[in-house]
Amino acid sequence: MEIQVAHDTTLPVVPLIIRGEVITDHLVEVGGRGGDLRFLTPDWHHYADRLPLADPARLAELTRLTFDDILDYAATLAKHLDLASNPHLQRACELTYLTAPTTPSLVRATYLGLPRMLDRAAIIEATESTVGIRHLEGWVRQTLIDGTELEVRCFGARALHIVAGNSPGLSLLTILRNMILRSDAIIKAPSNDPFTATAIARTMIEMAPDHPLTRHLTVAYWKGGDEAFERRLYQPQHIEKIVAWGGFASVKHVTRYIQPGLELISLDPKRSVSILGAGTFDSEQTLAEAAQRLACDIGAANQTGCVNARVVYVESGTDEAGLARLNDFGRRVYEAIQTLPNSISTAPRRPDPNLKADVDALRLDDDWYRVIGGEQGEGSIIVSQLSDPVSFAAALNDRNANLVPVDTLDQVLAAVDATTQTVGIYPEALKDELKDLLPLYGAQRIVSLGYAVALKWAAPQDAIEPLRRMGKWISNQIASPERVPGPWQRPPIVME
Fold first, then answer.
1. DSSP collapsed to 3 states, the chain
2. What would the pLDDT profile of 50-80 be if each residue is shown by its tens digit?
3. What are the tens digits of pLDDT across the range 185-241?
4. CATH topology of domain 2-269
5. Domain limits of the chain?
6. What GO biological process term is on the record, naming one (predicted)?
7. What is the model's pLDDT at position 492?
8. Measured between alpha carbons, how far is 308 from 124 in angstroms, rounded to an integer?
9. Which residue among 142, 276, 343, 486 has its CA within the 20 to 30 Å range from the CA of 190?
């Protein structure tokens, strides 16, 4: 939808979606991240009291759904999320070209892949391997060793989701997780993707306006850091769980609102590394394979994800011969990045000028670094000539990666800590040496090199199981004095 505003400027409108209602009143003008687009959205202050679920008893209509009902709804939604025929998605995709951190071909590829996220078998697999479907369908009973009958069930919650905007797929993943758990969701749309979640919600409304899953989804945009608004909303009588994606500042900001009854599930910013063993250099075949795989881990989604490799430790050796091997390998990786399909990686949309300046400065210091490529902002491979990463390693982005030579893999362990999310490893046999050791230092996900961005939602994320954490696990103890002696029946303690 578009409306005419002052100065003859036509701006797109991001509606407010409140549980099946599309709202376009009380509009205010805001700007997306990057400054490329301004848009209109309903004034969030005006609707602050309507965003929370007024009556928690309404969640009962969700608990009456069967898991098959949810699967059927997801299958129907998948058919409606066809970019070729869905005008809401088409418009959202076009507008996201202007706000996303990635290029249009990458944005479009993600939109084209949305229906695949709703695959029936994949939903069953992910749910069964984390929550367990029977815990969502009803009370699961067991008899404890003292005779107590214990029933456990996972209930949905009233949840607020602060979604990251580095991939449109995260909005659909959030919606899907809430469908599975039968939760009531308020999604805070991010400034670099304010359009995707709204487009999906509007599709759900047109598809099934009276369905409980439609009636328990709210999507709103508000400026992060609006404390007057957020203190009003972020209260345990309104919200039980906050699921926060995003950068350090935004996650840190949310923590000020946490109090008893309001739980934070933080999917906070992480960094990822790769480890390549000496077997990388066994043959021309292993060199070519490792270069291709590493190129994908660096370049996929233009290195915007936490999962992307940025610093790569290579067991090449630090002597003259070892550095020569690594410099040659760096050229192979750079060339492989340039040939990745444009549905996976492209030259960055807006290279960070400060990062480019740091990379360019290293070209003058060839005793310590070799810089391969990057002159046009297309990304570079920086090969350290000592066993130390570059000083700006934490800022590596835009398809810029740093290869660091080591003599032994023990040197890598000091670089792994609690902020390390994904570790890509090559050759595969090297995992057996490292998979029981890396988690002790903080690594949270171990993956075959080349598959860093091939996330599996059936697996844990950031060393937790978000789907399981998003539910409320309720227990019901059943006991009687005939089977389980009560506390009052215990013999008294005799005091000397």
1. CEEEEHHHEEEEECCEEECCEEECCCEEEEECCCCCCEEEEECCCCCCCCCCCCCHHHHHHHHCCCHHHHHHHHHHHHHHCCCCCCHHHHHHHHHHHHHCCCCHHHHHHHHHHHHHHHCHHHHHHHHHHHCCHHHHHCCEEEECCCCCEEEEEEECCEEEEECCCCCCHHHHHHHHHHHHHCCEEEEECCCCCCCHHHHHHHHHHHHCCCCCCCCCEEEECCCCCCHHHHHHHCCCCCCCEEEEECCHHHHHHHHHHCECCEEEEEECCCEEEEEECHHHHCCHHHHHHHHHHHHHHHHHHHHCCCCCEEEEEECCCCCHHHHHHHHHHHHHHHHHHHCCCCCCCCCCCCCCHHHHHHHHHHCCCCCCEEEEECCCCCCEEEEECCCCCCCCHHHCCCCEEEEEECCCCHHHHCCCCCCEEEEEEECHHHHHHHCCCHHHHCCCEEEECCCCCCCCCCCCECCECHHHHHCEEEEEEECCCCCCCCHHHCCCCCCC
2. 999 999 999 999 999 999 999 999 999 999 9
3. 999 999 999 999 999 999 999 999 999 999 999 999 999 889 999 999 999 999 999
4. Aldehyde Dehydrogenase; Chain A, domain 1 (3.40.605)
5. 2-269, 271-448
6. bioluminescence
7. 86
8. 28
9. 343
Name the amino acid, one letter, at 16. L
Q: Tell the residue number behind the tokens 């994908």, with chain if given.
A: 296
What pLDDT is stored for residue 493 in this prediction? Answer: 84
**Cα gap 404→426, rounded to integer Å:** 15
**Position 448: which residue type?**
S
